[in-house]
Amino acid sequence: MKNVKKSVLFICLFVVANLFAQSVEQVEFEVMDKEIPAEELTYEYLLAHKVFLREKPSVRSKKVTLLNIGTKMVLWEKSLYAKEIDGIKSHWYRVTTGDQTGWVWGGMIAQKSFGSIADNQVKFVYGYESSTTNEAGITEVKYQLRAFKNGQQLDKMVLDSLSAIPAHIENHGSLGLFNVEDVITVDLADADTGYQVGKSYVFWNNGRFKKVASLIDYADSNYLKTESFVFPSDMQGVKSTILLKTTITKNIKSLDDALAQNNVEFITTPYIWNGSKLIKKQENREIEDNAVVSIDF
Fold first, then answer.
1. CA 297, CA 285: separation in Å to the nearest integer?
2. Would residue 256 count as lying in a domain?
3. Distance from the Cα of residue 31 to its chain's centroid
4. Cα dihedral across residues 98, 95, 146, 195: positive or negative
5. How far apart are the first and last CA of the chain?
6. 59 within some domain
7. Is the pLDDT confidence value at 162 over 70?
8. Counted domains in the chain
9. Is the pTM of this model over 0.85?
C-alpha cells in the first residue's frame, strides 16, 4: 500500500482554528464519480478491525460481509445524514471492495495510511479514536495508530491530544538505529491557532509500537526552550546514539534580546534506546524546573 494522496477533509486538523474547540470531531471523504477511469481512482483503507459491510447506511441494516483492517475500498456515495459515535461525526459511505458493495461508517476509515519501510508487508493506519468533554468543559480528543499485516492487526496505540493535536504523521525508517525498524513522527499543532508546536516520536520494532517522547514548544515573555532529536543517519548524527539538542534563550525583552548570542545556551545530551525507553549515556547539568519546553529550532 503506497502513501496515496488523501482527499479526506480532516477538519479539526487542517481547516479553521475555531473548530478546535468543538467537542465533536468531523471526518469527511471525497466520493468518486463513476466516470473516473479506474487508474485515476482514489482508494481509502479501513482503520478499524472486523467491521461489517452493510446493505444500507445503518448499524441495524443487514450485514453483507466482515471486513479486516486495511481493506482497500473505493467510495462512491455518502449518506444524506451524518452519524456521531464516540464524539466522532461522519457520514456513511457506499463502497466497493473486490466484487462486494455496501456501506461503511466514515469513522471506521483511515485518515492516513502508509507502510513500514523495514517490512513492506506491514502497514499503518491512523485516525480518530474518540472525542469527549470532561467535567471542566475541556475537549479531550484521542487518536489511534494501528499496524497490520495481511489483514491481521498486529498492534494499536492510542495517542492523547493533551494541549496539542496531531496534524501530520510520517514514517522515516530506522534513521540509523539498529534496534528500531521504523521511526514515526507526529507533528503537533496548537489547539487554538493550528500552528505546529512540537513533535511526538513513536518507534516500531518487533511488531510493537513504543511511545518514546513528545517535544512541545512553549514560551513566555522571558524564557524560551527548544528541543529536537538528532538521529544517527542525520548529518550530525552519532552511531547508535540519539542526541537531544536543547537551546535555551533567557531574559527575552525584545527581538534583539532573542537574537543576542549571550542570551542563548546550547546543550547536547546523548541517549541510547534500550528497546523500551531512552537511557541517558552521561550526566549533564540539570536545567531549571521552570524551563519551558519547545522544539523545531
1. 21
2. no
3. 24
4. positive
5. 34
6. yes
7. no
8. 1
9. no
